[in-house]
Amino acid sequence: MSTRLATGGRLLDRGRSTEFTFNGKRLRGHPGDTLASALLANDQMMVGRSFKYHRPRGIVASGAEEPNALVNMGEGARFEPNQRTTTTELFDGLTCASQNHWPSLEFDVGAINAAFARFLPAGFYYKMFIHPRPFWKHVYEPFIRQSAGLGKAPRDRDEDTYEHFHAFVDVLVIGGGVAGLQAARAAGQAGARVLLIEQTAHWGGRAPVDGGTVGGAPVDKFVEETVAELEAMDNVTLRRRLMGAGVYDHGYVLGYERVTDHAPDAPGPRHRLWRIRAGQVVTATGAIERPLSFSGNDVPGVMLASAVRDYAVDYGISVGDRTVIVTNNDDAYRTAIILRNLGLEVPAILDARAGGGGALADEARGLGIRIETGKGIAKVKGGKRVEGVAICAQAGEGAVLEEIACDAVAMSGGWSPVVHLWSHCGGKLNWDEAQAHFRPDTDRAPTGADGTGFVIPAGAANGELDLAAGLKDADSAGKAAAKATGHKPGRKAAPKAEEQAGNPIEPIWMMPQGAGIKLRMKSWLDFQNDVKVSDVQLAAREGFESVEHAKRYTTLGMATDQGKLSNINGLAILSDALNQPIPQTGTTTFRPPYTPISLASIAGEARDRTFQPIRRTPMHDRHEARGAYWEPVGAWRRPYCFPRDGESIDDAVQREVAATRERLGLLDASTLGKIIVKGPDAGRFLDMLYTNMMSTLKPGRCRYGLMCNENGFLMDDGVVARLDEDTFLCHTTTGGAENVHGHMEEWLQTEWWDWKVYTANITEQYAQVGVVGPNARKTLQKLTDDDISAEALTFMGWADVTLNGINARLFRISFSGELSYEVAVPASQGCALWDMLLEAGNEYGVTPYGTEALHIMRAEKGFIMIGDETDGTVIPQDLMMHWAISKKKEDYIGKRAQQRSHMTDPARWKLVGLETVDGAVLPDGAYATAEGHNANGQRNVQGRVTSTYHSPTLGRGIAMGLVLNGPDRMGEVLDFPKVDGTVMQARIVDQVFYDKDGEKQNV
Amino acid sequence: MLILTCPCCGVTGEETEFAPGGEAHLKRFGPGSTDDEFHGYLFEKVNPRGVHFERWRHANGCGKWFHAARCTVTLEVFGTYSAQTTEPPQDIKDRISAKRPGWSWREFA
Questions:
Q1: Average model confidence (pLDDT) for chain B?
Q2: pLDDT value at position A115?
Q3: Angle of helix A649-662 relative to helix A851-860, nearest 10 degrees?
Q4: Residue B84: inside a domain, yes or no?
Q5: Residue-wise over A928-951: b if at least 16 C-beta within 10 A, else e?
Q6: Which of A36, A928, B28, B72 is least enclosed by beta carbons within 10 angstroms?
Q7: Taking phi first (over 0 means left), then psi (-120 to 50 degrees means alpha), and beta for anything else, what does residue A32 get?
Q8: DSSP tally for chain B: helices H, then strands E
Q9: What are the backbone dihedrals phi and psi of residue A222, each rounded to the nearest 5 degrees, phi first?
């Protein structure tokens, strides 16, 4: 069993205890524990079940690479699945539960999959669930969905806060182990601005556990002194619990800081996303130990050798009373030595190398530990916990030589440098034959804006696994980074560490090397996703020879740990199966983030109100007080309607239309885009921008215009007013203002840059109110001494007037078909104008109306709406707006495109009005069907509805739509099938339903 | 995320300050052009591996359009220059020649 030793635990505060809950059980640990070490202290070796076979899963590692020990953390608003216990610092009151089992961790129904494992090999789902086709939707998919996913999805709203942080440094050092510390020191001493970040809560990385001496003193002392020195330097910033998540173009790095994960009640955000720009990035990210592939290597109690000694040294944990060591390199001997020195039993070290180990092996032998060279594990005995191992000759096929009782196995397949951050932005790798791992090819570094490399690997991350070599490498990395950012590194040499001679690693990808299928089927590569040696071999046999294909076919490395333990072993097996060298197989792509980061940290502060600021018109509060029912229009909020007490939305809209048509309505039109176009060439420019002629417009007059893009498609419309000879005011749609302004600037800056034109978007500088209805003029006349009579201010004219002392511009334009004015005043006068108009209109029963009444009234008049009648594929000709397209102009944006054959095709659907036969309202977007079916077996169509409303004025449903040969088919009745299977019929009519002759607006 | 320098206002900023605008140095074809010419202008954009000329707008800055000469493989930026020109300035072309001898892009080399 795993237990806490009576003494020891480098990181623990043994004087205090911490209480936490696992699967409802109350357990105790110490401050300084990780959740994983605290679980082990309580003999909770089994912590979950695997994804596919629901095999019992135990803690394997002690750091970020952990594939198994994932838990559902927290409760309610702080619930989060798939949290790695090995990187979770223990705190008082921590609550967690194991994942992927039912009904319980100990007894799990899904484990039945394991019994069928031989029928569930790689690619099983692809092969099995393809036939019969209809079964996918109704049988297979629901079943697979139910078993998909490890943890539970959170239900409640996250109550924590998150933030972003920007940092700009010369040199960013990622990793606070001895290499990172030395690199930071070297760069810092040269005067560079340095940021040193470390993902865990402790400095020094593995070195304090693995031991060694620097300058004659224990490495712990070196760590301590270096940290103190760095902290004293003004140009160096040190941060713990901050992981380098990803390296991107031009020295952009994302850091993920877990600010209060370890102290949830502390003030401050939970996570902080660092957005770092670094001149140079030093990746001192260390190395990760690889498992060995032997039968039963997934049984709880089989752990990485380095993890076993981490738990012993850092947390005073014995993972088992009797630990068998199995290795292909010298490093694992350290575990044996540490365990033995703690008084624990190491029944044997199985060294797969025929030649055995070097100095460390001699030390272990000196402690009386039995060492078997050329031997390996044939299989691990036990189900939910290791009970023993059967040993065999590595060179054989697995014939059992002896069985050794034990309750833990410490395995080491060698070390792989953490090259993720080096690789994210294009750093290339070389296969190091001697050390059997991929390491950075420093001649092919990721390049920055100036074409030179901006990432420098250091220490173990650069394949320098030895302490002495690593320190030297890190020192030169730090100096090189400082130099590249314009600083002058000193000549001070790197601190000297004691070198350790040893025997080289021997690559062992399968144990024993001749393992039969039965053993290979139980030799795990990917513990979380249940991928075994046999699966990768099957993939190779079935033709998935590319490592990227094999990965996706088998799901190797696709779990939440992204193959940190499994990838190298997997591609070695694949290479072997394909009979090609490992570098030829290559690696899969390393993609950020290094380990999963919270979505909330990516969102940062951008949630709720700050997600997207709301744009409010100057009269917003007046509408709010009136009880406006709001509609988002782009980032704006506009009143959809103003329901009265007890009134439905529909009723309010119908009332507003009727009141406006009969008496007087007010519309807040401030959101309308307003762009000033000014200069000697303004008229010429607008002639290019609009389909019709604008240069002939007289000052004091307005003209409606259509704007197309270069593809010929209609993009915006609006009324243009000529303010004076040189100045035009272009109104745009509410949503189009910024886009149209950008469109103008693009053409002015990149095509007609010699034209003398200036544009300014003044949308927010003005409040604008539509005064609409038969009493509009009477109401306005009450407020001004200026002559606004029908003769003085004719339809499509504008005038400057003074309304009760407020300077206003009065446009006599109409989007409703009524006598109508739009009044523009400086934004600061918006509320005053609104109040004034309400008061003046009171005697006429003035009624503020919203966007829906606006839409209905324009549809009754057959006016198009950008976004309803247009969808980015409609040209003005489709909308029968030839009257708005100049024949005289040689050119305008979109003209050439509108001459293309498809644009002039007579079969393009054209705009018509639609009147339902029974007076009901057509569904929006409904299609008119035609005879026959198309190649896909769908009904042929001949038109669609673009706008549809119930018209209170006409008391019936009215609609507009685009119909094949529509204008030539007046009076024909079309079928519009509805989603419920019934069919509505509508007659093709003229699109102007109301006041065809415009008598109402021309009064 | 790229870093670009706006040649108009001189600010060196993050990519999020800028908006990409596709290929640079397009010659506009309007009414009177053949179908092929117009089609080429509107739809046939190059997206080479290597040296490329692009339009960018300092959208969250001074608002001006400019051109960038860039390597699409290494993301090296050879230089940025005014959009108000029909061909890359000589000093930019020289800089590219120094780093990518023998380069060509459309009719430029």
A1: 96
A2: 67
A3: 60
A4: yes
A5: bbeeeeeeeeeeeebbbbbbbbbb
A6: B72
A7: left
A8: 2, 6
A9: -60, -45
Q: Tally C-beta pairs within 8 A across A and B.
A: 68
Contact A750 B83 (CB under 8 A): yes
Find tokens 């990518």 and name the residue.
B100
Q: Residue A153's pLDDT is what? A: 86
Is A753 at the interface with chain B, CB within 8 A? yes
- A844-879 per-position pLDDT tens digit: 999 999 999 999 999 999 999 999 999 999 999 999
Helices (runs of H) and strands (runs of E) counted in chain A: 26, 51
- Whether the CB-CB separation of A409 and A295 falls below 8 Å is answered with no
Report residue A179: phi and psi, to 5°.
Answer: -65, -45
CA A300 from centre of chain = 34
Touching check for B71 and chain A: CB below 8 Å? Answer: yes
**pLDDT of res. A148:** 58
What is the DSSP-derived secondary structure letter of residue A951? E
| Chain A CA closest to residue B68 | A449
Q: Residue A107 has what pLDDT?
A: 75
Tell me if chain A has a CB within 8 Å of the CB of B101.
no
Q: Within 13 Å and on the Cβ side, how many CA atoms surround A168?
A: 3
What pLDDT shows up at residue A151?
79
List all residues 6 or more positions away from A379 whose beta carbon is below 8 Å from its beta carbon.
Answer: A294, A295, A296, A389, A390, A398, A400, A519, A522
3-state SS class at A78: helix
Show the low-confidence residues of chain A (pLDDT under 50): none
Q: What is the pLDDT of residues A709-732, one digit of tens each?
A: 999 999 999 999 999 999 999 999
Task: List, in order, residues 6 or more apart from A868 with CB less than 8 Å away.
Answer: A855, A946, A947, A960
- Rounded to an integer, what distance in angstroms lies between the CA atom of residue A948 and that of residue A937? 28
Neighbour-count burial for A856-889, b at 16+ CB within 10 Å, e otherwise: bbbbbbbbbbbebbbeeebbbbbbbbeebbeeeb
Helix, strand, coil shares of chain B as percentages rounded to 5?
A: 20, 30, 50
The range of the structural domain enclosing residue B68 comes to: 1-25+48-109
> Which of the pair, A1001 or B76, is modelled with greater confidence?
B76
ipTM above 0.85, yes or no: yes
Give residue for tokens 């001459």. A899
CA distance A653 to A854: 9
Question: pLDDT tens digits for A516-556?
Answer: 999 999 999 999 989 999 999 999 999 999 999 999 999 99
**CATH assignment of the domain containing B5:** 3.30.2270.10
- Tell me if B37 is assigned to some domain: no
Question: CA A956 to CA A49: how far, in whole Å?
Answer: 63
**DSSP-derived secondary structure for A630-656:** EEEETTEEEEEE-PPTT--HHHHHHHH
User: Please, are residues A916 and A910 in contact by the beta-carbon 8 Å criterion?
Assistant: no
Enumerate the residues of chain A whose CB falls inside 8 A of the CB of residue B29. Answer: 896
What does the pLDDT read at residue A135?
Answer: 73
The count of domains in chain B is 1
| Residue keyed to tokens 């394909």 | A578
Cα A425 to the chain's mean position, in Å?
18
Across the interface, whether the CB atoms of A277 and B30 are under 8 A apart is answered: no
Asked if residue B31 is part of any domain, the answer here is no
Burial A171-192 (b: 16+ CB within 10 A, else e): bbbbbbbbbbbbbbbbbbbbbb
Q: Is residue B3 in some structural domain? A: yes
User: Could you write out the DSSP letters of every residue in A443-502?
Assistant: GG--B-TTSSB-EEE-GGGGT--SHHHHHHHHHHHHHHHHHHTT-----PPPPPB-----
Percent of chain A at pLDDT exceeding 90: 90
Residues with Cβ within 8 Å of A681's Cβ and at least 6 positions away in sequence, in order, are A752, A755, A756, A757
Q: Are strands A162-174 and A194-197 parallel, antiparallel or unpaired?
A: parallel
The residues in A 420-459 lying below 8 A from B, measured between CB atoms, are: 426, 447-451
| Burial status of residue A581 (CB atoms within 10 A of its CB: 0-12, 13-18, 19 or more) | exposed
What is the C-alpha separation between A128 and A113, in angstroms, rounded? Answer: 15
